[in-house]
Structures are given as C-alpha cells and as structure tokens.
Amino acid sequence: MFLTGFNSPITSALYLEKLLKYHKLIQAFSRTNRIINITKPFGNIVCYQTTKKTVDEAILLFSNSTNTDQILMKPFDYYELEFIKLVNKLKKDYNCAYDVGNDGDEVKIKEFIFLFKEIVKILLKLETFIEFDINKSKYNFSENEYNEFKSRYLSFSDEKIKKEKLSVLADVDFELELIYSNKINVHYILELLKKIDLNNIKRKEKQIKEIKKGLQESTDPVLKYKSQLINSFIERVIPTLKNTADLEVLYEQFCDKKYEQQIIKISKKYNIDKLDINEIISEYRFTNQLPSNLIREKINQQYTEKIAINNNVSKIKAKNEVKKELELNIINLINEFES
C-alpha cells in the first residue's frame, strides 16, 4: 500500500482488504478525511478484514478523545431516525413547498430555512450508506418533493439579496454549498434548464451561471458524460431563442440532432452502415451488455486491412484494436445521450 505522501481531498470512499493496525490503519483512514469544504465532513470506509475492535484501539491511541463516537459516524439507523423526525416536522408544518412563506411571515421563513438545512445535512450523511433511498415509502418524502422544497429554499436566498439589511433573513447563513453539493445530477440540471427565464436577461445570465457551476462541481458520473452536450446547448441554442420558446422540447430536438450526427461520424470513420450501429446499440439496450460477436461481425474488412497496413500489425491484431476502439465509441455515445 502506497500511503505516505498520498493526498487526495476529493477521495470520499476507501476499501481496505488488508489487515491493518494502529498507525497504518489511521494513515489509511486519513486518506478519506481531507477536508475540501462543508460538503465533506467525513469519509466512507469499507473494511474486509479489520475489525471494529482494532479500529477503536487505533483511534483511542492516536486521538485526544476517550470516546470513538466523537470520531466515527453513528450507525445508519441513527441518521435514518433523525431524517424521519425532521421530514415529519417539515410535512406537519407545510403540506407542500408552495405553502412556505405564502403569508410573508419572515420569522416562519427563517424557521423553515433552519429546518431544511438540518434535513440537507442529515441527507448528506445518509447518502454515504448504500441502503439509503430517499424514495422509499417509509420516509414519506420523494426526491421530487425534496427538489421542490430545495427550490423554495433557494428562492428565499435570492430574496435575501434583494431585501434591505433590516430583514429578519439578513443574518441567516443559507450555506448554499450544502444545497449545490446535494444531488447535482442530470435531473436537477435539466430542471434548471427548463426554468431559464428568456424574458429577463439578467435573470437568464444568473440561471445559466448557476447551471454551469453545477456542471463543473457535480461528482455525478452520468452528468459528467452529458455536461459537454448541455454546455453546447446553452452556448449555441439559448442565445438564439425567443421569449416564447419551449426549452424542454428544443433541448430534446438538439440532443436528437447531435445523436444522429455522432452516429454518422462513427459510421463514416469505421465504414459501417448506420443501421448496423443502431442494431448494436439496440442489442446493448436490451441486454445491458455490448454484443461482442455482433460488433466483430459488423467490422468492415477493408477498414481492418487499412489499419493493419498503417500500423504494421497482423489483420487479427488490427481487428481486435478496431473492435476495442469501436466499443469505446459506442459506450461513450450511449453514456452521453441515453437517459
């Protein structure tokens, strides 16, 4: 294990297969505890051989604490119960997100802000556990509901900036880092995209800036594949739109056009018919696996011979190289355009 000198603040999960003790164990654990900001107060560690007793002994030896609970996260059940309590209180106070602040009572709005912040903090912890799924019925709180309350929360942050210092919200820290780090995924970004205000130039610029920030900061692997596509839509299409444009429809049309262009590009490069490429993709959609035999069958013989001559390799090796490259192109295409 190469631990000394390894420093990666973004590392959030560590898998240990070796039996480690004392300083080596603590050194390994510390890889996940490099602080970036408020959104990463802990790391997730999976031990295959090291026991809890060994972990406790190492922590007690190298910390100033006599209680490991101050350093280790509590069990999943603890955070789940806290989450349920907070959500129940939220649902008791408000039937839906649109009920928050309707009467203009800033004291109640402030109470909502503090309550929702606590929910987000617990949610960040729960999402490190594989058993957590916010859409489970026992939570009585779907991801869509969460996003609606989050939008309301962010709207109060915008209002705070516009209002005078005498406002009750003037001293409230919204800790927006918590909100932006939580679930910045494809769904979230596309929802923001649909809400861009084409009638207000300043608001439109602010919304676009928020989307680009989300694309840049998100750790969602699916969104990473689609970020270039979304950025391209923002930069090339949105500036040309009129106030009455339907952004959702236009984005889908933009994606369809780009998808077709990529299919044509792959078809020309490898001298393979478009129908054959679509057949490979359809097979992948059905089985969730690349059809290796079908890909090998569709590879153009003349293109393979050309690669063999250019690279000075055998036809068999050239075909394997072409197959591997073609598979990678198809996977990238699927990741970028599939929902």
From TrEMBL:
<protein>
    <submittedName>
        <fullName>Hsdr protein typeIrestriction enzyme n-terminal truncated</fullName>
    </submittedName>
</protein>
<keyword id="KW-0680">Restriction system</keyword>
<dbReference type="InterPro" id="IPR027417">
    <property type="entry name" value="P-loop_NTPase"/>
</dbReference>
<dbReference type="Pfam" id="PF12008">
    <property type="entry name" value="EcoR124_C"/>
</dbReference>
<dbReference type="InterPro" id="IPR022625">
    <property type="entry name" value="TypeI_RM_Rsu_C"/>
</dbReference>
<feature type="domain" description="Restriction endonuclease type I HsdR second RecA-like helicase">
    <location>
        <begin position="1"/>
        <end position="49"/>
    </location>
</feature>
<feature type="domain" description="Type I restriction enzyme R protein C-terminal">
    <location>
        <begin position="71"/>
        <end position="337"/>
    </location>
</feature>
<dbReference type="InterPro" id="IPR051268">
    <property type="entry name" value="Type-I_R_enzyme_R_subunit"/>
</dbReference>
<dbReference type="Pfam" id="PF22679">
    <property type="entry name" value="T1R_D3-like"/>
</dbReference>
<dbReference type="GO" id="GO:0009307">
    <property type="term" value="P:DNA restriction-modification system"/>
</dbReference>
<dbReference type="InterPro" id="IPR055180">
    <property type="entry name" value="HsdR_RecA-like_helicase_dom_2"/>
</dbReference>
